[in-house]
Amino acid sequence: MENFKSGFVSILGKTNVGKSTLLNTLVQDKVAIATPKSQTTRTAIKAIVNRENSQIIFIDTPGIHKPKNKLGNVMITTSWDTIPNVDLTLFVIDARYNKIGKAERIILEKIKEKKVKTILVINKVDLINKENVFKLIEQYKEQYDFEAIIPISAEKGKNINILLDEIEKNIPEGPLYYDLDEYTDQTQRQLTEEIIREKALKLLDDEVPHGIYVEVEKMNLRNTTKMKEIYDIDAIIYCLRDTHKGIIIGKNGEMLKKIGTYARQDLEKMFQTKVNLKIWVKVSRNWQDNNSIIKKFENK
Q1: What letter does residue 232 receive in the DSSP assignment?
Q2: Contact (Cβ atoms closer than 8 angstroms) between residue 33 and residue 195
Q3: Using CA atoms, how far apart are residues 31 and 45, in angstroms rounded to an integer?
Q4: pTM score > 0.85 for this model?
């Protein structure tokens, strides 16, 4: 395709700056779970935006944080590994902070070290005044020669098209890497696991969510007696402690029922069919340091 552009774009930033919300807004579909909890994203998630003259493949990465276990180390490695392997980096910061923080400085050093083309994205500008944004722009301008600095609101969709135009400008000519009807490289099983985890993250107290992971054991599409399609899905939420298991299940099973109901509603919208979802809770102590489990989160 003549004059057609295609490229890989990583999304970097510390935890909770809105990277996953930005990804979903760019793709106009749900490909990454987004919650107010930190360290929500654990793997590099690819999402595809097809435009008239370009295909942009975004890679959402885990937020930069201080790792406390093998899982944390893998998450950080995943984020750093994307930097030299993409055509462009989006460095996302939170507009509500009026100075460059420690995590941002670490990311800036990595960007400088690799000399990568980078667009600075100032997110959540709907929550602060313009003066604060101007101050941030001046501070960051002194740090690196960004291709562009774009204030946005991922939540409100503000300046998203401006951002996409700027990205398109900064990626090379190339082929279609993915079919036009594809919007993510995640499997239905992975999407299901992440949606269940998202509901748990949103509903549970801060102490519990980071110690859970979800595994789909069975996913089967069948016809009912009335010849309507339905997905039978069996999933397990693994947690670190017996006390956590009790919290996830809740009194008379109410919390687990709520997690299952919200997850099923999202899954039915995504798959456009009825879903029969069953969830169990099991304790898996120290899974965050278990090599066989951690492999699931490694960047392939």
Answers
A1: E
A2: yes
A3: 8
A4: no
CA angle 106, 88, 82 (to 5 degrees): 55
Query: Amino acid identity, residue 240?
Result: L
CA torsion 7→74→242→282, rounded to 10°? 50
Task: Identify the structural domains of the chain with CATH numbers, from first to last.
Answer: 5-169 (3.40.50.300), 188-297 (3.30.300.20)
- Which comes out higher in pLDDT, residue 139 or 287? 139
- Say yes or no to pLDDT of 172 above 60: yes
In the structure encoding, which two tokens stand for residue 36, read together? Answer: 């107010």
Any idea what the Cα angle at residue 238 is, between residues 237 and 244, rounded to 5°? 95
Cβ neighbours of 202 (radius 10 Å): 17
Measure the CA–CA gap between 92 and 2, rounded to whole angstroms. 32
CA 267 to chain centre: 17
Spatial distance between the Cα atoms of 220 and 215, rounded to a whole number of angstroms: 15
**What are the φ and ψ backbone dihedral angles of 226, each rounded to 5 degrees?**
-95, 15
d(CA 105, CA 4): 35
CA 129 to chain centre: 27
Give the pLDDT of residue 38. 45
Q: Which residues contact 198 (CB under 8 A, 6 or more apart)?
A: 33, 34, 35, 40, 263, 266
Amino acid letter, 210: H
pLDDT for the residue numbered 204: 83
Task: List b or e across 82-92, with b for residues whose CB sees 16 or more CB atoms inside 10 angstroms.
Answer: bbeebbbbbbb
Calpha distance 85→4 (Å, rounded): 20
Identify each DSSP E strand in 138-287 by its residue range: 148-151, 213-223, 229-239, 274-283
Residue 285 CA, chain-centre distance (Å), reads 25
Taking alpha carbons only, the member of 75, 87, 92 closest to residue 18 is 92
Neighbours of 229 (CB within 10 A): 12
